[in-house]
Design goal:
This protein has about 260 residues and is an alpha/beta fold. The protein has eight helices and seven strands; from the N terminus they run βαβαβαβαβαβαααβ. It has two domains: about 200 residues, NAD(P)-binding Rossmann-like Domain (Rossmann fold); about 35 residues, no CATH class.
Length: about 260
């Protein structure tokens, strides 16, 4: 399917690996030029070069912490006028409700709620002026069904979801579509971190921890960055113009909900 976005320009955050890289790769496959951001310069350049070589699109890299004001300003200066924004940031660590105080919650809100909001606030006005834009926020299945040990993430990402619910409906009339993409467990470093926590806590191998988790997923496997990125690219496409303010699960059926 031709997504109709060849020649567009996208900012993809935290895109040196994992789900962010999957989104960058699939947008590039559709002919989209990229501004890629991540904290680690070496991994970022390696990912960018691989995408340039495979897809022949223009790729600009900005090594910076998107959560910090300084890093975000650096990224926005380089990004300039973009048509597509994909927000993404690593989730806060797992734990117990009794472990978290104000400082931990502020850190989670900064990374997983306030940073995406700041990026949308900065970039959507130009999209509105052009009459076309796409925003995809990578959040989590936990906004549909909370994950007890991820209380920090549950709270911050649900806050972002509430913001998007209203904002998406204000900007849709200008051709700007904002949606959230909710991953379940995918084969990324985040999954390794979570499986490692289970391994340590229960005294089992990481492989066994993964096998146990896979049995809780109707698809009986972890997702891949390629299929997640493909869904992101579709939401950024010309075909998704009537999808507004939605929370799209990509979780192999793991979220046990009717709606």
């Amino acid at each position: 399917m031709d997504l109709g976005i060849a020649g567009k320009r996208a900012l993809v955050c935290a895109s040196s690996k994992g789900l962010g890289r999957g989104c960058a790769e699939q947008l590039a496959a559709a002919g989209v030029n990229l501004v890629m951001n991540a904290r680690g310069a070496e991994a970022l350049e390696e990912a960018a070069e691989a995408i340039r070589a495979e897809h022949g699109v223009d790729v600009v890299t900005v090594a910076a912490d998107i959560v910090s004001e300084e890093g975000r300003a650096k990224v926005l200066e380089v990004a300039g006028d973009v048509d597509i924004l994909v927000t993404n940031a690593g989730g806060p660590p797992p734990g117990m409700w009794s472990d978290w105080g104000r400082e931990e919650f502020i850190g989670a809100l900064d990374a997983n709620m306030l940073t995406p909001i700041a990026l949308m606030t900065a970039l959507m006005p130009k999209m509105i002026d052009k009459g076309w834009g796409r925003v995809v926020n990578i959040t989590s299945q936990s906004v549909k069904a909370p994950i007890p040990q991820l209380g920090l993430s549950n709270a911050a990402r649900t806050g972002l979801t509430g913001y998007v619910a209203g904002t998406a409906r204000q900007v849709a009339q200008f051709g700007v579509n904002v949606n959230n993409l909710l991953p379940g467990i995918h084969a990324t470093d985040r999954a390794i971190q979570l499986d490692g926590g289970v391994s340590q806590k229960e005294g089992i191998s990481i492989d066994e921890a993964r096998e146990r988790r896979e049995q809780t997923i109707p698809a009986r496997r972890y997702g891949t960055r390629e299929e997640f990125g493909a869904m992101c690219a579709f939401l950024c496409s010309q075909h998704a113009g009537f999808i507004v303010g939605q929370n799209i699960l990509c979780d192999g059926g793991a979220t046990n909900a009717t709606i």
